[in-house]
Amino acid sequence: MRKGPPEALLGLGRFVANPRRFGGFVSGPALAEAITREIDPAAGPVLELGPGTGVFTRALLSRGVAEADLILVEADPLLAARLQQAFPRARVLACKAARVTAAELGGQRPAAVVSGLPLLNFPGHEVERIVAATFALCTEDAAIHQFTYGPRCPVREDIMAQLDLAAVRTARVWRNMPPAHVYRITRRAVPGTASA
Question: Which ranges carry the Ribosomal RNA adenine methylase transferase N-terminal domain (predicted)?
């Protein structure tokens, strides 16, 4: 019995319906490998923002992250329902990334974040809300792993300064259409707290 359109067609359909909100339908295996490369499966739960059709989700599972340690936040209700079917042990939240609450995480504090959100398509104030809300949910040393098709980090410098964050490009992915960059965004170290 057929359950719906194949993943690629579903992704294309959601992109056509709302191209500013659904930016990752073209994410391929090389980008999925690059954005999940630094994820430590033993560190704790992983929060995925905008998993779409689950390309990065499957890469996280391939890295050894337990399905029960995945928290998938997808604003598109159709995609959220498909994710819940595909990953029944994961916690799937059908809401916008900036609206996730600690209560919805069931006491879990993510140790890492993988973001498939097309941040370049969002206004600055929305990017700031998403990033601030995400870090508020995570462990102190958590990082957001964010991809972009643009030439620089998709979180503007003024937002990074306002939230006291730092970004490092961790990968250039030429084997993706279009080519992409991956950034690791972290809180800046608090002066005087670094170990010698």
Answer: 31-189
